[in-house]
Specification:
Strand content: under 5%
Distance between the termini: 16 Å
Structural class: mainly alpha
Radius of gyration: 23 Å
Shape: globular
């Protein structure tokens, strides 16, 4: 089920919200949590019911592993380490099988000129996110930071529908204590208002803005056989803006929906195109993924504690894996390596202590990000090369299209100068017009849904659903 669908907006979300608080007040938290868990399973199964047993099996496996080494917390350390290793390996094996089996077979066939038949596996929805979230849970539990014995609570931690599909990647300590807070067991009007505001802004970002840019990005990357200078930049900037508003819109809707239930998920998107350097960009873009990469890959590899050369190698390794996580393709790997190398260059730049004008630094960062997104978007190498040769002017100047140009300039201006949706939500009490404006945007977005056949139009899917 999509956040940007009539089924979710008009039926699933309000019904789940109303029944949850009715049960919470009338029958207690256990009943209301069973309802919320059941609703979340229904939400997940709406997309592909065949994978409901898969996610339930993953939850049972990780819960069992966790119980094995928490029950024997004070006993044999080797046993606990073995349990943790088994848990991490099991999660990675599941992810690897569904996400990378065909990628491995394709490259095996290419290297050895063999003809091994591909498996043609369909990637289970949200597998990357619920796998990473459960790995983080196991590691945190092993370190002694979590004590969770309830299978119901653990299942809700993984399946809570606002964050299930594309994050944020949440720590147990960030979410589950909020369910136990007595103040959160009743409807909080302020949270309903803030959540509705943020959700409405996110819906507008996705339906009206991102899906408009998707048309121009698709035309350049997928439809055109050759692109000119103007067409190349139009396509690349359109995708850069599509991805921004698509993921930002999803994040807003996730945080807004969770807030209706008095749950504050961690902020996952904080105006990343305002970044002044590539490290700042990764502190703003998919912030919980950046945190996971830092805490569970970069630091365990040694971080910056073992000298410059090792630090640079750790950065490149981390972002190589980041590229692989985003997609089973060499264009994703190259995109990840580009960002790893950029972070190495940034660290070296800090060492030589050369200052740079902050406007120029921001523009340089944005241009690099825009350049790297070409590889992120391209289906094949030839598509990336097609766009880049056009951007470099090898195919002529071309004719400027007024409408795409106006959209690009206008929304770049919004991104660089306006406050983001979370800042709007925080100011709702002092600026009530922001609420009315946000709800107005939400109504426009709902009306815009009439122009799409949601079940058949792939542009309606969120881009991070593919990861």
């Amino acid at each position: 089920m999509l956040f940007n669908s009539f089924e979710f907006i008009l039926i699933f979300l309000p019904v789940t919200f109303l029944v949850f608080f009715f049960l919470n007040n009338s029958f207690g938290e256990t009943t209301s949590r069973i309802w919320l868990l059941s609703a979340s399973l229904f939400f997940y199964g709406w997309w592909a019911p065949v994978y409901v047993p898969l996610i339930l099996g993953s939850i049972l496996f990780n819960y069992g592993i966790n119980r094995a080494f928490t029950v024997r917390r004070s006993e044999n350390r080797v046993f606990r380490q073995a349990c943790l290793a088994l848990g991490v390996l099991g999660n990675l094996s599941l992810l690897g099988y569904f996400k990378y089996a065909d990628f491995f077979l394709e490259n095996w066939n290419w290297v050895f000129s063999s003809k091994v038949e591909l498996l043609h596996l369909i990637l289970p929805l949200a597998i990357s996110f619920f796998t990473f979230q459960q790995i983080a849970y196991l590691v945190d539990s092993y370190r002694g930071g979590i004590k969770e014995s309830s299978f119901l609570n653990y299942s809700l931690f993984v399946l809570f529908f606002p964050q299930l599909i594309s994050g944020p990647i949440v720590h147990h300590s960030e979410m589950m204590p909020q369910f136990n807070d007595l103040l959160n067991k009743r409807v909080n009007l302020a949270n309903v208002v803030s959540g509705s505001l943020v959700f409405s802004i996110g819906l507008f970002k996705k339906v009206v803005v991102a899906d408009t840019f998707a048309v121009w990005a698709t035309r350049g990357f997928d439809s055109a056989e050759l692109v000119t200078f103007i067409e190349g930049w139009t396509a690349s900037l359109s995708f850069t803006l599509q991805l921004y508003f698509d993921f930002s819109g999803y994040t807003d809707m996730a945080l807004g929906a969770a807030l209706l239930f008095n749950i504050r998920l961690p902020i996952n998107f904080n105006s990343p195109y305002k970044a002044r350097n590539i490290r700042d960009f990764w502190r703003r873009w998919h912030m919980t993924l950046s945190r996971f990469l830092k805490d569970y890959i970069y630091i365990p590899l040694g971080g910056n504690r073992l000298g410059s050369v090792r630090t640079y190698a750790n950065l490149i390794t981390t972002f190589f894996l980041c590229g692989m996580w985003h997609g089973a393709g060499w264009t994703f790997v190259f995109w990840g390596l580009l960002h790893g190398i950029a972070l190495v260059v940034h660290r070296f730049w800090l060492k030589v202590n050369i200052s740079m004008n902050y406007i120029f630094a921001g523009l340089l960062t944005f241009l690099f990000v825009n350049f790297s997104w070409v590889f992120f978007r391209a289906e094949e190498w030839k598509d990336a090369i097609k766009i880049l040769t056009g951007m470099l002017g090898f195919n002529g100047l071309g004719i400027l299209e007024i409408v795409p140009a106006i959209y690009i300039v206008f929304f770049l201006g919004i991104i660089w100068t306006a406050k983001n949706s979370m800042q709007w939500a925080e100011q709702k009490n002092s600026k009530s017009q922001a609420l009315y404006f946000a709800l107005f945007l939400g109504i426009i977005a709902i009306l815009q849904l009439n122009n799409f056949q949601i079940s058949n139009d792939k542009t309606m899917e969120f881009l991070y659903f593919n990861f």
